[in-house]
Amino acid sequence: MDRRTRDGGPVVIGSSSVKQAEEATDTTTDRSVSPQLRRCLGQADLRAVPEARRALREMLVHWGRPGRSETAELLTSELVTNAIIHTDRDAVLTATVSPGRLRVEVRDFVGRRPRPRRPDDGDGTHGRGLILVQSLSDAWGVRAHGVGKAVWFELDGEAS
Q: Domains in the chain, start-ordered, CATH in brackets?
């Protein structure tokens, strides 16, 4: 059975490179489809963080102003880390790039909503992820799903 998304494209399941995702979604000759990265993140698999950064870096090699892709990598690693550490389930990373905008979202299957919080001095490295996302992204938010949520951010490719 051929599974399709709401917009009619095929569902991409499992780890995939940008090229594989593009091939899987390019069933017609329409090249207006934005490149997309989709990764399944295994429960408590911390290797997913550097792998997600590397895959995003490859996808964004010619995107945006200098420094924007580095910001995207940092924010993506924060969302991926949060999903891996603060949930007890798998998650899905999706990044979609267009000439002027990047949207990254990490969907998990836990309904508890994340909250930005001020880290305490004794908190070490915990508590800073969503503050970074809030501070460095052009837009961000949390969208509820039937099961779980998606935490997302957007970056404008032309912003400095």
A: 18-22+32-156 (3.30.565.10)
